[in-house]
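Sequence in, structure out.
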Amino acid sequence: MTIRIVLVGTTHPGNIGAVARAMKNMGLSDLALVNPKHFPHEDATARASGATDILDSATLVGSLSEALTDCVYVAGASARARSISWPSMGPRDCAERMMLESKQGKVAAVFGPEKSGLQNDDLDLCHTLLTIPTNPEFSSLNLAMAVQVLTYELRVASTLDGGPGFESDAPPASGEEMEHFYTHLERVLTDIDFLDPDSPRHLMRRMRRMFIRARPDQNEVNILRGFLTAIDQTRRSG
């Protein structure tokens, strides 16, 4: 499967090993670690229990955006309510969507630190929230358990007919291409005084939500950036 599991800021190395084991149980092998507190570590190796090959090949990066550079679709796991709504899916629907999107390129599921979970800045890089329903009287779900739930659903979804996929004359824009676009957009909006850099409120976060729903492909992102460049040139020559 062209599916990556990304762990952000994991504090307990044993959880990394347990996640590797959960992944191997369900046939996944692409693990990325963003600023883990302790790794490599003997506790990770012990908890991996036969999945040390996944630990050995894990990618260590300094930021979530770096882990998602080549991804065309990203689900972020979160149990916390947010002030700005994100599209949200349960694990079964999310797994089926991820399998469908994987026909277009690399997809990822992102899990945050054990205590705090993903921050809003992390979710800005995601297309949907993954929420796992639990008993409201005891909603704490171990990191490896959460990964196991999703990887199981991915295993099931991989046996289903995902349909024809999304037709386009260009591949979906990658995470890296979208980040370049957002940087360009924010700069132009600031230059034309539409965005106040000292009081941005939630404008750029809402803009991200809008373009995530639109899912532009590479050609469309190039058109949008050409449009921004034209605005820039007109403003400077005016």
